[in-house]
Amino acid sequence: MNYRQIGSTDLKVSELSFGTWAIGGSWGTTNDQESLKALDYAMGEGVNFFDTADVYGDGHSEELLAKATKGRHSEIHIATKFCRAGDIHDPKTYSMESVTKYCEDSLRRLEREQLDLFQIHCPPIEILQDGQVFEVLDRLKEQGKIRYYGVSVETVEEGLLCLNNPNVSSLQVIFNLFRQKPLDELFPKAKEQGVGILARVPLASGLLTGKFKANAKFEADDHRNFNRDGAAFNVGETFAGLEFAKGIDLSNQLGWIADGRGNMTRAALKWILEQDAISSVIPGFKTVKQVQDNLKALDAKDFTAEELDKLANFYQQEVHPAIRGPY
After folding, report:
1. What is the pLDDT of residues 47-77, one digit of tens each?
2. What DSSP line would sit under 189-244, residue for residue?
3. Which InterPro entries does this entry report, sorted A to Z (predicted)?
């Protein structure tokens, strides 16, 4: 396992880490025992960083992480997120009182005394423009409740806005072969300012595994069913903002990336790892097998310059025009 610094912080994390949305909820059926086995396996392979949120299973993913990391707080870093358990448009959600409660509730579920990284969870742009929430987070940092803070954003514009705040340590960004826009301006500026990048939705909700067929069905409580057109939250969170059938077609066209790399999953993750602004890529998982497969991306062969150009052109010509919603 290789480790990378999250921006200018002293957090050195596994370059391939894991997000815990899927084991918390909204991804169909889960099994806690399998989730705990998968977490334990990941840590055994050198993974020392996990991303979660208070709304993943109404705190369930945080509770699972508490069980999995018990006695290992100094070696396993956890990032969590807040605000979406409330009204994300109400300024009171970002008050000192509210954010302190979110923080303390997460600390209680995680069974920790301090959060390594506390992130605003995809707030509306007007909240970022107002900026008062950053002052609240500065105070929590002074109190020792959090070490660092960052923002999970939906769009490049939001990310660039966050960079105006000197105490933002990280940005969590939707970034994958179907969402390459951050490469142009956001990533270079973040790197210049010492802000770490966490790449989320790296497999485009599974499209980039190459395993789906056009007639695929998802469980009722899986966001790939109820949010595929953005009915519940930002459409970009599901299939990277692509209409499902279009996503399947584009995925099929990318099948060649698996050649010599084992499969599309490993290839798609490897491409992200080759971007020098990335601090860590955080795919989701439900099973030990999925963790094992994702970790094999670390040993996949690099992309050639010709292949990288081909992927950039494919994004611009075929993918970019098909993405729905702001990004």
Report:
1. 999 999 999 999 999 999 999 999 999 999 9
2. HHHHTT-EEEEESTTGGGGGGT---TT----TTBHHHHTTTSSSS-GGGSGGG--H
3. AKR2_Oxidoreductase, NAD(P)_OxRdtase_dom_sf, NADP_OxRdtase_dom
- Collapse the DSSP code of 141 into the 3-class scheme (helix H, G, I; strand E, B; otherwise coil) and give the result: helix
Tell me the residue length of the chain: 327
Sequence spans of domains, the chain:
3-202+265-302
Q: What are phi and psi of 172, to 5 degrees?
A: -105, 120
| Partners of 18 in beta bridges | 50
pLDDT per residue as tens digits for the range 145-194: 999 999 999 999 999 999 999 999 999 999 999 999 999 999 999 999 99
pTM of the model: 0.95
CA dihedral for 252, 253, 256, 262, sign (positive or negative)? negative
- Percent of the chain residues topping a pLDDT of 70: 99
Query: Is the CATH number 1.10.260.40 carried by domain 3-202+265-302?
Result: no
Q: How far apart are CA 74 and CA 41, in angstroms?
A: 18
